[in-house]
């Protein structure tokens, strides 16, 4: 049976057709035209694909793999080994300084996607610092790093399928102090630590004789991700974009205001936060989520994940003893020893849950700090 559903949200319309396990979506993406119409077309097409994947429940972690192919100016895109099989560009137009691309996207969502079989993993965000504070003089945007962290947090909270932000800390991250980083992650129930540095916010001015000068401003930022269980640096990347700076050179711009974030420059920064979120999904979503035992009493164990992480009554989990150690060079080494103990979720709270030990005679060997993995054969 082939069912078609037309859903409209504001100016966005999605036409969904279900045929066996396949779905196809007709969606319109948009992007501001700045560098060129070609670049805006790519951004609008990426926006359309992201919306389609989010709406159908496809794995957004696969999107970074497609970006190289979407750079090509084509009407048809075909893929293999991906949940997206086919993209057909139906229409593209530019109006009001924006590019609009309407595409039909064929998707085969997998029931075994990583975000569907694991709990959400906690991220602790650090404040993104400014490498060259003097570059913030135009507009007095000295607090941009702090507000960038907040926007990244909101992007992850709203759109990420595999992660949630447990907090934003002012403590600087350092790979040279792994033990302190592990303690910081533990205090915030975070499996990973995410931070970086804004490396370039310089501006270039195009002088015009008969009209106002055009100011374009760079935004470059680095991304560092540390494993909260070991203190190791596990992922690094850098991003760069350029946006039109529409404010007067002598103005003081509030980087917390909607006026800043809806401007072309603010939009380019938001696009970077989305790319960061997608890269984090792609790099880490399939790593096992590791709930931790925080208390054990009379055969009932309490763990540090709950409803917001996707925990449900009846979930089955396997216990691993944590046997980490510090080697001769002073480097913490994480080690997990498999056990025959399984537990069943009995009661779920917002950020924690209680589990019943399925082998009561072995409950005495369970200790706070032991780790759990969700069993996938449920």
UniProtKB/TrEMBL annotation:
<dbReference type="InterPro" id="IPR038180">
    <property type="entry name" value="FlgT_N_sf"/>
</dbReference>
<keyword id="KW-0282">Flagellum</keyword>
<keyword id="KW-0732">Signal</keyword>
<dbReference type="Pfam" id="PF16538">
    <property type="entry name" value="FlgT_C"/>
</dbReference>
<keyword id="KW-0966">Cell projection</keyword>
<dbReference type="InterPro" id="IPR032386">
    <property type="entry name" value="FlgT_M"/>
</dbReference>
<keyword id="KW-0969">Cilium</keyword>
<dbReference type="Pfam" id="PF16548">
    <property type="entry name" value="FlgT_N"/>
</dbReference>
<feature type="domain" description="Flagellar assembly protein T N-terminal">
    <location>
        <begin position="23"/>
        <end position="109"/>
    </location>
</feature>
<dbReference type="InterPro" id="IPR032388">
    <property type="entry name" value="FlgT_C"/>
</dbReference>
<dbReference type="InterPro" id="IPR038165">
    <property type="entry name" value="FlgT_C_sf"/>
</dbReference>
<feature type="domain" description="Flagellar assembly protein T middle">
    <location>
        <begin position="113"/>
        <end position="255"/>
    </location>
</feature>
<dbReference type="InterPro" id="IPR032370">
    <property type="entry name" value="FlgT_N"/>
</dbReference>
<feature type="signal peptide">
    <location>
        <begin position="1"/>
        <end position="22"/>
    </location>
</feature>
<dbReference type="Pfam" id="PF16539">
    <property type="entry name" value="FlgT_M"/>
</dbReference>
<feature type="domain" description="Flagellar assembly protein T C-terminal">
    <location>
        <begin position="301"/>
        <end position="374"/>
    </location>
</feature>
<protein>
    <submittedName>
        <fullName>Flagellar basal-body protein</fullName>
    </submittedName>
</protein>
């Amino acid at each position: 049976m082939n069912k078609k559903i037309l859903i409209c949200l504001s100016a966005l319309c999605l036409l969904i057709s279900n045929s066996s396990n396949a779905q196809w979506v007709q969606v319109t993406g948009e992007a501001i035209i700045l560098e060129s119409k070609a670049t805006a077309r790519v951004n609008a097409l990426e926006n359309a694909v992201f919306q389609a994947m989010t709406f159908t429940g496809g794995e957004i972690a696969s999107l970074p793999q497609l970006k190289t192919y979407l750079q090509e100016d084509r009407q048809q895109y075909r893929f293999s080994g991906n949940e997206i099989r086919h993209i057909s560009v139906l229409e593209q137009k530019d109006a009001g300084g924006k590019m609009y691309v309407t595409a039909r996207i064929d998707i085969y969502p997998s029931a075994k996607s990583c975000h569907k079989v694991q709990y959400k993993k906690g991220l602790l965000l650090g404040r993104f610092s400014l490498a060259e504070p003097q570059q913030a003089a135009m507009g007095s945007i000295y607090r941009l790093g702090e507000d960038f962290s907040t926007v990244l947090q909101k992007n992850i909270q709203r759109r990420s399928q595999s992660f949630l932000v447990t907090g934003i800390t002012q403590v600087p991250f350092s790979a040279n102090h792994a033990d302190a980083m592990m303690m910081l992650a533990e205090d915030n129930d975070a499996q990973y630590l995410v931070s970086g540095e804004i490396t370039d916010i310089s501006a270039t001015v195009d002088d015009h004789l008969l009209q106002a000068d055009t100011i374009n401003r760079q935004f470059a930022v680095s991304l560092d991700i540390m494993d909260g269980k070991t203190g190791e640096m596990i992922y690094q990347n850098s991003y760069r974009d350029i946006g039109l700076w529409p404010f007067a050179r002598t103005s003081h711009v509030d980087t917390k205001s909607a006026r800043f974030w809806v401007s072309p420059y603010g939009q380019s920064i938001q696009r970077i936060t989305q790319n960061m979120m997608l890269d984090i999904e792609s790099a880490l979503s399939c790593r096992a989520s590791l709930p931790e035992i925080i208390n054990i009493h009379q055969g009932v164990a309490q763990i540090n994940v709950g409803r917001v992480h996707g925990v449900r009554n009846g979930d089955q989990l396997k216990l691993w003893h944590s046997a980490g150690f510090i080697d001769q060079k002073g480097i913490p080494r994480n080690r997990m020893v498999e056990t025959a103990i399984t537990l069943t979720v009995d009661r779920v709270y917002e950020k924690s849950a209680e589990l019943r030990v399925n082998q009561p005679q072995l409950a005495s060997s369970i200790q706070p700090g032991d780790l759990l993995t969700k069993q996938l054969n449920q």
